[in-house]
Design goal:
Elements lengths: L3 H8 L2 H8 L5 E2 L1 H10 L6 H4 L7 H4 L5 E2 L1 H14 L5 H8 L6 H9 L3 H11 L7 E8 L2 E8 L5 H23 L7 E3 L8 H7 L3 E3 L6 E5 H4 L8 H34 L8 H12 L18 H6 L5
Parallel strand pairs: 5-6
Antiparallel strand pairs: 1-2, 3-4, 4-7, 5-7
Helix pairs in contact: 1-13, 2-14, 3-6, 7-10, 8-9, 8-13
Length: 314
């Protein structure tokens, strides 16, 4: 006999289930405090950065505070309204050293080579930014990495994040390789902005615009160059902690899926359609109003089983 609860929950589209996931508070707030520093904001100026997030100054300044993907995007939107720096994403990215990324950055720094570091980042980036994903592939002697940003945002915020992630990648690569990674190619989905010269100041290597995907390409020979700062013991320690954090994030995601099932159980059969389920869920769970119009989020399937099934770097 078919389980009606399971069937009802399965009928909710991935975009609806992923919408719930994006409101899981799992993103470290240190990134947003660095945004405030880049803006030159003091404590009294923080409310302007926090408009629409449901966060107060005291909450925001707590070191262990975690925020949701929606809150992170709103903070970036506010920041772009407050700054006069067109290349804000580039200058923000310069502030983000590898160790800014906690255990994931520590693991990357301790990796035996750039290839191992990028593999680690692709597995554990959701523990730092739950709406981001890095998909890796190898072809023609090149390592390719495609960045996904699975949350609704404006073009300006998307460009800002693309700039920031690109600068972060080059910072990690430079630490491991020991020099600027001039062999790398970076591809941006948008036209070259009018401050395009700033890209060449912050980002070494070849830059391409109007691309189909936000991605990078690096010769495998460079990726396999040994990291002189590699530390196997530190790598294994960081790996264990990152796996634990990923498991915790997955449990939070499953909890939201359970809440969707309970919501559907509370309604008569056939009275709650897909949009209604999403709207009702956010009305009772979101800390502030969330617009669902045009939401096109996809489900990130990061499962520890699949993580472990991949070739684990040594």
């Amino acid at each position: 006999m078919t389980d009606p609860v399971r069937s009802a929950a399965a009928s909710v589209p991935e975009s609806t289930r992923e919408s719930a996931t994006k409101d899981v508070a799992s993103i470290p707030s240190n990134y947003s405090r660095l945004i405030a520093q880049e803006l030159g904001l003091h404590t009294k100026g923080l409310p302007a950065l926090l408009v629409g997030t449901g966060l107060g100054r005291t909450q925001f300044l707590q070191e262990e505070r975690l925020i949701s993907g929606q809150q992170q995007i709103r903070i970036l939107e506010n920041a772009l309204q407050l700054t006069e720096n067109e290349g804000f994403g580039l200058s923000l990215g310069k502030r983000l050293t590898p160790l800014t990324h906690g255990m994931m950055g520590f693991m990357a720094n301790s990796s035996q080579d750039l290839y191992t570091a990028v593999q680690a980042i692709s597995l554990f980036v959701p523990t730092r930014m739950n709406f981001a994903g890095l998909e890796l592939s190898e072809r023609n002697g090149l390592l390719e990495g495609r960045l996904r940003l699975d949350i609704q945002m404006s073009d300006a915020v998307r460009r800002c994040l693309a700039e920031t992630f690109a600068r972060m990648f080059f910072a990690i690569a430079e630490f491991i390789v020991g020099r600027p990674l001039v062999e790398a190619e970076v591809f941006f989905e948008y036209a070259e902005p009018r401050y395009g010269d700033d890209y060449r100041t912050y980002l070494p290597g070849s830059l391409n615009f109007h691309a189909e995907n936000l991605m990078f390409r690096v010769p495998m020979a460079v990726c396999r160059k040994p990291n002189v700062s590699a530390n196997h013991e530190n790598y294994q320690l960081a790996l264990a902690q990152c796996e634990t954090m990923l498991e915790q994030l997955q449990r939070q995601t499953l909890d939201y899926q359970t809440r969707v099932k309970k919501l559907m159980l509370s309604r008569p059969p056939g009275t709650l359609d897909e949009e209604g389920a999403a709207a009702a869920f956010f009305l009772v769970s979101a800390p502030w109003h969330v617009s669902l119009t045009g939401r096109t989020l996809r489900l990130n399937k990061y499962e520890m089983a699949s993580c472990r099934s991949r070739q684990r770097p040594i």
